[in-house]
Design goal:
The chain has eleven helices and seven strands. With 287 residues, the chain is α/β, with parallel strands linked by helices. The chain has a single domain, classed as 3-Layer(aba) Sandwich (Rossmann fold), CATH 3.40.50.150. It has a seven-stranded mixed β-sheet with strand order 3-2-1-4-5-7-6, sandwiched between helices. The structure holds S-adenosylmethionine. S-adenosylmethionine binds next to helix 4. S-adenosylmethionine (SAM) binds next to helix 4.
Length: 287
């Protein structure tokens, strides 16, 4: 879609993720593509597997998974603008024989029971009521299939000042996305997967946010330096033109600084935050 299709007012009224989708922001999760690849390995994805990515955004990570593991994949997201960009990506990357993107809700997946070998979320489950969502993920999973999550965690214990800042970041992200946003501890993530009846649950903690070494790959995945530059210019343009958008970016920046710190400089708060890769398999008696 040409970027000037919507007026500034219409853009301001888009939901946060529709807005990010409209801009074409790739939604890089804090563990970067390294974490995506590791999650794919933990879920034992290969060319014989059919994978569902819930909350696929603009399809950046989903297409990476397909190219890396050769699987078939369906990506769903509630944000229509993000799905439009994801469909453009499929065409651009000539992946239409293996990938399909469509609008859909994590709580009411438009698929029959037992359709997928793996269901994955990356920086999505922390926005969801996990009890409700995991039931739905397990329903569309084949017996023995894998649920894999790549989400933020926080330490169970930390100085009160740090806990206050993390709470502030949670509130900011909840506020700008208008979604309930909660950062769980590793134990809480484990508990949620186990409560859903999954077997062999494993939680892998990682405290290293995305490495700067991934920057060239990120730019390549965005579509090259030209596209990256255009994205930056577009973001700057809307920041200058709209107070509402300016405020969104300012809040996002604040939350990011609290949770991930600066490249190579960990803040006091970011030392107590990282990402978990969590996996578990569907039992015979489940779903
Ligand atoms: C931070 S983005 C993650 C993007 C994506 N994982 C990626 O790899 O690029 C969170 C995404 O979750 C989506 N989302 C939030 N709630 C959802 C729901 N109930 N059903 C489907 N998608 C949802 C948002 O629209 C957004 O695109």
């Amino acid at each position: 879609m040409p970027e000037n299709d919507l007026s500034i007012e219409e853009i301001e009224n888009l939901s946060y993720y529709d807005f990010m989708g409209y801009l074409g922001v790739p939604f890089y999760q804090i563990g970067g593509l390294t974490s995506t690849e590791r999650l794919g390995e933990l879920c034992q994805i290969d060319e014989d597997k059919k994978v569902l990515v819930v909350g696929c955004g603009t399809g950046f990570n989903a297409c990476y998974i397909v190219r890396k593991f050769g699987c078939r994949l369906v990506g769903i997201d509630i944000a229509e603008e993000a799905i439009k960009k994801a469909k453009e990506r499929v065409e651009r990357e000539k992946l239409h024989d293996r990938v399909e993107f469509r609008v859909g809700d994590a709580y009411a997946l438009p698929f029959e029971a037992g359709t997928f070998d793996a269901v994955i979320t990356q920086f999505v489950s922390q926005f969801l009521d996990m009890e409700k969502a995991l039931k739905e993920f397990a329903r569309v999973l084949k017996t023995g299939g894998c649920i894999g999550i790549n989400e933020i965690f926080k330490d169970g214990e930390m100085p009160p000042k740090v806990a206050e800042k993390i709470l502030e970041a949670e509130q900011i992200l909840g506020d700008i996305t208008q979604l309930p946003f909660t950062i769980h501890t590793s134990e809480e993530w484990k508990e949620r997967l186990e409560k859903a009846g999954l077997k062999g649950v494993e939680i892998h903690e990682n405290r290293e946010p995305v490495s700067l070494k991934e920057s060239p790959q990120l730019i390549k995945e965005i579509g090259g330096f030209g596209k990256f530059f255009k994205l930056m210019v577009r973001m700057m343009k809307y920041t200058l033109l709209s107070r509402v958008i300016r405020s969104r970016f300012k809040k996002l920046d604040r939350a990011k600084r609290v949770l991930v710190g600066y490249p190579m400089i960990k803040s006091a708060t970011s030392r107590h935050v990282g990402y978990i890769l969590g996996v578990g398999n569907k039992n015979e008696n489940e779903g």
